UniProtKB/TrEMBL annotation:
EC numbers on record: 2.7.11.1
Chemical reaction(s) catalysed: L-threonyl-[protein] + ATP = O-phospho-L-threonyl-[protein] + ADP + H(+); L-seryl-[protein] + ATP = O-phospho-L-seryl-[protein] + ADP + H(+)
Signal peptide start and end residues: none
Residues annotated as domain Protein kinase: 65-241
EC category: transferase
UniProt source species: Pseudogymnoascus verrucosus
Gene Ontology molecular functions: ATP binding; protein serine/threonine kinase activity
Name of this protein: EKC/KEOPS complex subunit BUD32
Domain of life: Eukaryota
PROSITE patterns: PROTEIN_KINASE_DOM, PROTEIN_KINASE_TYR
Length: 241
């Protein structure tokens, strides 16, 4: 498999960097210059004008990486798909550092709480992915994206889904079109509870969006404001004007 980024570009000192998956191993790629221009990975691990460093992994992490492929990535985790799976939980959400582990541990706890109430949230395997340092991920069902061309049809169902989540005391805190998907039965399913928390609690700094000037409290109102923005995107079929 070709080398694949598993993080967005981020700064290290005065350099830019990304983490790379290559042949089941993780590498740190660093370069000087524009962070928006990732070096050519065609001949990886040989990369012009960049340094490549192997990142040690636990045996359990190595085992997962050797039997799965990268599906997507973001700032808080990356997604892998198992090469073979004996149940419906073939998608893995995986952390690669302490910050991401902390977020995924919290997300796993909240999803177990919500799943026990049969709510329209992503279904997860009840056993987390863990090594000697603790939870580094979890397995979940495979979902599909909502076609933005018909997304407006789902607005009432989306609103009801978040209302049900709020009634359990949980605030999502990161509502976006990409976090609203469909399950195998075509039903709206909410994902990505990595920044979620419980109504009335203070938002931890690790979960805060941006750099708030004052402490933030988890509230339904903040979710509703975000949901209004998403509804607008759905109504405009993804157009921003």
């Amino acid at each position: 498999m070709p080398a694949q980024p598993i993080t967005p570009a981020y700064p290290i000192d005065k350099s830019s960097a990304v983490n790379i998956d290559f042949n089941g191993d993780e590498y740190l790629l660093r370069w000087d210059g524009d962070w928006r221009e990732t070096p050519d990975l065609t001949s990886f691990p040989h990369v012009d004008n960049a340094t490549v460093t192997l990142i040690p992994q636990s045996e359990r992490v190595k085992e997962l990486w050797a039997t799965s492929q990268v599906l997507a990535y973001g700032a808080d985790s990356h997604i892998r798909i198992l090469d073979s799976c004996g149940d419906k939980f073939s998608v893995c959400k995986v952390a690669i550092n302490d910050r991401q582990r902390q977020l995924l541990q919290g997300e796993f706890s909240i999803l177990r709480h919500l799943s026990s109430k049969d709510l329209p949230v992503v279904r997860i395997h009840q056993e987390p992915l863990a090594d000697e340092e603790g939870i580094f991920g979890f397995r979940m069902e495979r979902l599909s994206n909502i076609d933005i061309g018909v997304a407006a049809e789902y607005i009432p169902e989306v609103a009801k889904a978040f209302e049900e989540v709020h009634l359990t005391g949980v605030v999502h805190y990161d509502i976006s079109p990409s976090n609203i998907m469909l399950n195998q039965n075509g039903k709206v399913t909410i994902i990505d509870f990595g920044r979620a928390g419980y109504i009335g609690q203070e938002v931890p700094s690790i979960k805060a969006v941006g750099k708030p000037k004052e402490k933030e409290i988890y509230s339904v109102e903040s979710d509703n404001i975000s949901l209004e923005r998403v509804n607008g995107i759905f109504l405009r079929k993804g157009r921003f004007n």
